[in-house]
């Protein structure tokens, strides 16, 4: 058997090679964990973990909320909620300079309350909002950047799949974490809207003033289309906050509520339901592959004692706790240039969470900070998952570098929001503390 340090180095080299040749991150993590346990502990331990973890993970009651939230978002999209939200936001804000971009941000934040997936959010609003903003003369870079950034709001505003994964990895309350993300998510949307206003105020060419006048009655009537999102939000988040049911039950009730909206709006058909369930199943499978691989890798780190050794070593340095947090942020930024946020979380949290909590950070607050860092990683080059989604889903010609150029001001805005959350942690913790 090899000693843990040597095994850790070999596994790190192996994973770097896997990622370099394009092996799926979930598979790379899983193989790294199995090989590491095989070398450091023995074949019996490695095969035992491989035999039990996939079933125990997919059989976890807490993780059942992930496919339910994904299904709820797919059904909400099928119900046409997105279009209704965008129409209402456009009617009320369209005449403002930069109003269409602000409306996109507002509608995207609202849709995040039914979706929970940043990728779905970005793809839906790219197809819907990008042609509209282009038609009205908006700068393509501002339009695409706004959509890519607004899509990340779904990772904070509950229900959030990333929050659930963080809760499971760190053994924290899913309900408290979902509630903790609400105010920071709304704050992020507000900062984006303020940033858009200041950008177009400084450079009016980015967003021409619209001359379309919407009658007040039409504005009021458009609000009727947002009842679906309000219904789902009250049903899911109100139920969790009020203690009526646990998050997994909330996911089931939310999915059923979204199904009722589909039926109520006359959009139910066998073919579309099959496609909706298939898309939700594929998305769920991809997420679970990463989670299973991450848990296998975390078991390797735990059983070999590497986590405790690294934690002890770093804490013995007795650094200021914010230096530990800065190191955590730098790791997220670097990994965010290479892999997606779920993979980043399952790779880093088993090591960094014990260090940061031992340094004195609140675990619920730390969850929101982790998700905020993950949001930023969704927009940074060279990967910037949401940027690629916008580029791929765009119905109009746009270059990848134009989307990256458009999203960079929103990265700066997100960093400003992150600093606010660090300076005033009560923004995150006051709602969970009321539960």
Radius of gyration: 22 Å
State the major sheet: none
User: What's the SSE pattern?
Assistant: HHHHHHHHHHHHHHHHHHHHHH
Number of strands: 0
Shape: globular
State the secondary-structure class: mainly alpha
Average predicted confidence as pLDDT: 82
**Low-confidence regions:** none
Amount of helix: over 70%
Helix count, DSSP H or I runs of 4 or more residues: 22
Distance between the termini: 49 Å
User: What is the domain total for the residues?
Assistant: 2
As a percent range, the share of strand residues is under 5%
What does this protein look like?
By secondary structure, the protein is mainly alpha-helical. The protein has two domains: 1-59 and 288-303, no CATH class; 60-268 and 304-434, no CATH class. The chain has helices at residues 4-20, 25-40, 43-58, 65-78, 81-93, 99-115, 118-135, 140-151, 161-170, 174-180, 182-202, 216-222, 227-241, 247-264, 270-303, 306-316, 321-336, 341-358, 363-377, 385-393, 400-423, 426-434. α4 (65-78) runs parallel beside α14 (247-264) and α11 (182-202) packs across α21. 49% of the residues are buried.
Which labels suit this protein?
mainly alpha, 2 domains
Short description:
This protein is mostly helical and 435 residues long. The protein has helices at 4-20, 25-40, 43-58, 65-78, 81-93, 99-115, 118-135, 140-151, 161-170, 174-180, 182-202, 216-222, 227-241, 247-264, 270-303, 306-316, 321-336, 341-358, 363-377, 385-393, 400-423, 426-434. Helix 6 packs parallel to helix 8 (140-151).
């Amino acid at each position: 058997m090899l000693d843990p340090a040597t095994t850790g180095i070999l596994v790190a080299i192996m994973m770097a090679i896997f990622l370099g040749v394009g092996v799926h991150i979930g598979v790379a993590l899983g193989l790294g964990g199995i090989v590491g346990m095989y070398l450091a502990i023995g074949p019996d331990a490695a095969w035992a973990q491989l035999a039990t973890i996939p079933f125990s993970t997919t059989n976890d009651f807490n993780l059942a909320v992930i496919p339910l939230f994904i299904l709820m978002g797919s059904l909400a999209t099928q119900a046409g909620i997105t279009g209704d939200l965008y129409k209402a936001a456009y009617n009320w804000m369209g005449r403002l300079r930069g109003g269409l971009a602000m409306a996109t941000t507002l509608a995207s934040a609202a849709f995040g309350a039914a979706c929970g997936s940043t990728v779905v959010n970005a793809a839906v609003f790219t197809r819907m909002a990008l042609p509209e903003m282009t038609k009205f003369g908006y700068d393509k870079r501002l339009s695409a950047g706004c959509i890519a950034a607004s899509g990340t709001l779904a990772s904070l505003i509950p229900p959030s799949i990333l929050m659930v994964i963080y809760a499971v990895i760190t053994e924290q309350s899913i309900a408290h974490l979902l509630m903790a993300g609400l105010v920071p998510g709304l704050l992020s949307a507000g900062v984006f809207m303020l940033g858009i206003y200041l950008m177009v105020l400084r450079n009016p060419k980015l967003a021409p003033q619209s001359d379309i006048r919407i009658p007040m009655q039409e504005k009021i009537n458009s609000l009727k289309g947002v009842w679906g999102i309000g219904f789902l939000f009250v049903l899911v988040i109100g139920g969790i906050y009020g203690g009526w049911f646990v998050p997994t039950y909330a996911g089931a009730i939310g999915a059923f509520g979204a199904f009722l909206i589909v039926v109520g709006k006359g959009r139910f058909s066998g073919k579309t339901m099959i496609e909706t369930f298939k898309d939700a199943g594929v998305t769920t499978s991809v997420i679970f592959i990463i989670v299973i691989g991450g848990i296998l890798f975390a078991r390797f780190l735990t059983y070999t004692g590497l986590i405790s050794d690294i934690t002890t070593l770093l804490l013995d340095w007795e650094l200021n706790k914010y230096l530990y947090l800065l190191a955590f942020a730098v790791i997220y930024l670097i990994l965010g240039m290479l892999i997606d946020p779920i993979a980043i979380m399952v790779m880093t949290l088993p090591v960094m969470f014990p260090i940061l909590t031992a340094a004195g950070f609140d675990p619920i607050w730390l969850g929101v900070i982790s998700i905020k860092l993950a949001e930023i990683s969704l927009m940074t080059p060279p990967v910037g998952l949401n940027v690629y989604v916008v580029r791929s889903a765009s119905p109009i010609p746009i270059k990848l570098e134009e989307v990256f150029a458009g999203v960079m001001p929103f990265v700066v805005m997100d960093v400003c929001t992150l600093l606010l959350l660090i300076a005033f942690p009560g923004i995150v913790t006051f709602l969970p503390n009321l539960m």
